[in-house]
Amino acid sequence: MARRSMEKNVSQGPTEPVRAHWQGPEPQTVTALLRHRAEHTPDALAHRFLIDGDGTSVAWTYRELDLHAREVAAHLRREQVGQGPVLLLHPPGLDYLAAFFGCLYAGAVAVPAYPPDNARFGQTVPRLAAIARDSAATHALTTGKVREAVAARGTGHVGAELDDVRWLVTEDLYTGDSTAPWEDPGLTADSLAFLQYTSGSTAAPKGVMVEHGNLVRNLRSIHLRLGHDAGSGMVSWLPPYHDMGLIGGILTPVYGGFPAHLMAPMTFVQRPLLWLETLSRTGASTSVAPNFGFEQCLRRISPEQRAGLDLSRWRLALNGAEPIRPDTLDRFAEYFAPAGFDRTALLPCYGLAEATLMVTGAEPAEPPVVESFDAAALEAGTARRADPGSVRTTRVVGCGAPVDDVEVALVDAATGHRVPDGTVAEIRVAGPNVARGYWKRPGAGADVFGTRVEDGPDTAWLRTGDLGFRHDGQLFVVGRTKDVIIVQGRNIHPQDVEQTAERVGAGLRAGHGAAFGIPTEDGEQLALAYEIGGPGAGDPHALLARLRTAIADEHQVTPHTVVLLRRSSVPRTTSGKIQRSACRQQLLDLELPVVAASVVQDGTLPDATGPRLSGPGAPDRTAALVADALAASHAAEGAPRYSRLLTAVRTLADGLGVALDVGTLLSGPEPDGADALTALCRTALADATPAPAPGRTRTEAVTWLRRAVAARLGLRPSVIDPTVPFTSLGLDSKQAVSLADRFGDWLGTPVTPATVYDHPTVES
After folding, report:
1. CA distance 372 to 382
2. For 8, 184, 476, 483, which has the most beta carbons within 10 A of its beta carbon?
3. Percent of the chain surpassing pLDDT 70
């Protein structure tokens, strides 16, 4: 493209720093960005891709990237794709870049998606088929290996939509002819660039329509906030199919005119050290990762390996895409300080695909802002700095102020009015970075992209679904509107509970768990699911007890259900984010692979006089009771399987006069089956403590109390520490009153709740 024709596509009113950066008007489209680089710095390194953990790499200059993009575009034009969507089904690599830019060069709409995964073929094909169905793509660009794998295994009925797609192998389109003709498709800022499919359900993924203008304006905002220049450098291992990997890791360097050093996410997972080695070796200034990426480095890079790193030139360590943990920032800065890493490099940020990428970001060269707030006030919707004597505090990371061109409002969702600073409310966003809407979903798009703020300018605002507050000019993000758990009128933010759980220590897989609310007969209650594994896991039942104590102490709430799971079982989105709602649904459907569980006893505590069912005919009567309990629970139409199981167990426990451990059921093959319930009842009856003889001893009292507390919390008596206060064990006030009543029955003399409060441990 001639320079004169390129300059027709310029953004309106660029600031002076932007005009100076481009030495003239700013290009208006992503196509024009790359063409500008290819014309002005053709031999500069554009992207380098590390193909293995040893650092072996391949690289393209801007001239080579432009050439391959033109070759792909020419073929798409011959295929008469027009402005239609084209699936990009590549593993991470340079061919993916050629396919992406080739689509844009052809005027088509790129649709990045994860290619079918051989290891999880049956799980990845349905989502891919759903994207193909929703986008109505007629063509797919891919690699020879991917096409051969799909042809060999077939897509089956779940991927029938893929059978009608014409598959093109990108590398077969390279001719090496630098004089190959290319026709400018005449794109403008309003032209659609790509569809960013969000991580919704398999049945209904939503494609965010991102325009060229959205991209260029947000790339400009990122460039200005981060202070990039030609001497900058990028290192990225993020998936190129999502906003942070594609826009942050691949397009930001093109806008800035500096090199990008890329690797596949799996390469990072296999060897996190390579990420930091690449930063050390190249002297790159910038890299971005979600919180778990920093955690991986802390867990898997030894002091000896750290000694070989020089991180002094890494001045922009962006942390975003998932809740940012204050302790992660602290530990990362401290651990890698000997390698030259400066805490001021840590740059928390906030963004989402519907806003292209970045919405807010901290200022470079300043340490991240971490504030301690009064936990009770925050749960009530007010951010108030914690006093020195505050009983409970919550540390929250500030995500900075809005970037250029972007406006953020904190809005009461019920009234549409802005709220004062320090009030937790819904985050809404306006600006040229906000995408056009959802592909072929005008109704859903209007609800999300077309909201209004009553006391603001008459413009459309993006409803993010995130909750946060403004404090000292910074945006603090505290959760999702759909994720907030309301327990007895208190707002519990799941990420706070998850952070507490991960501080319990060895055994839990950090970043591999979810807190969420579940329905019970007492209303919504807290549930926690975490993967277990790795060094130091130890006894899972002891870990369950430690989790309950940590959550009770820090949040003054008793989880109803805590489950420990096998590795790789907590649902994630394709971009790696934990899917709390999907995890919740799998628990309610009894589909989680449970290793061990602790479930609060919903009914009464065991009868102080011993079991009510005994004698020779007890087994037959037990089976009959189980059948009746299951029949009664199934009468609740529409109730989840887990809710029906809890109802059946409560009925049986009350009828038998024994505590029934639901956690034992959850770790079995068919938790709500008659056989499992019957076996549980018979075991509980056999283990039940018989009615005691007169003259209780202290030892007997301690044993009874440990068993009673364990039964109430769904724990083993052996993990109940008799010196820990009942509240720290996880008993709430209602449970403590019930414990006092039953203990009095056992002793043969009344025990008041005041006695429990005055003597708050088993030992006392």
Report:
1. 13
2. 476
3. 89
C-alpha to C-alpha distance for 459 and 456, rounded to whole angstroms? 8
Average pLDDT over every residue of 405-419: 94
- 109-112 and 139-142 as β-strands: parallel, antiparallel, unpaired? unpaired
Mapped onto helix, strand or coil, the DSSP state of residue 752 is coil
Instruction: Annotate 238-306 with DSSP letters as a single string.
Output: S-TTSHIIIIIIIIHHHHHT--EEEE-HHHHHH-THHHHHHHHHH---EEEE-HHHHHHHHHH--HHHH
Q: What 3-state class would DSSP assign to 572?
A: strand
- Asked if 349 contacts 361 with a C-beta cutoff of 8 angstroms, the reply is yes
Closest CA relative to residue 339, chosen from 377, 310, 319: 310
Nearest of 119, 117, 115, 154 to residue 132 by alpha carbon? 115
Q: Is the pLDDT of residue 103 over 50?
A: yes
* Average pLDDT score over the chain: 86
**Residue that has been written with the tokens 């986008």 in this structure:** 135
pLDDT digits (tens, 9 = 90+) for 603-643: 555 554 555 555 555 666 888 888 888 888 877 666 789 98
Q: What confidence score (pLDDT) does residue 92 get?
A: 95
For each of the domains in the chain, give its residue range(s) and CATH number, in order of start.
3-319+326-339+354-358 (3.40.50.12780), 360-480 (2.30.38.10), 490-599 (3.30.300.30), 618-687 (no CATH), 698-758 (1.10.1200.10)
Q: What is the model's pTM?
A: 0.75
- Pairing label, strands 109-112, 85-89: parallel
Helix (H) or strand (E) holding 654: helix 641-656
How many Å apart are CA 104 and CA 110, to the nearest integer? 7
The span from the first CA to the last CA of the chain, in angstroms, equals 84
The first and second tokens of residue 455, run together, are 């006391």
* pLDDT band of 741, cuts 50, 70, 90: confident
Compute the radius of gyration of the chain from its Cα atoms. 29
Cα diameter, the chain: 102
Closest-CA residue to 596 (of 552, 530, 497)? 530
Average confidence (pLDDT) over 67-85: 94
Q: Is the pLDDT of residue 365 over 70?
A: yes
| Rounded Cα distance, 337 and 427, in Å | 35
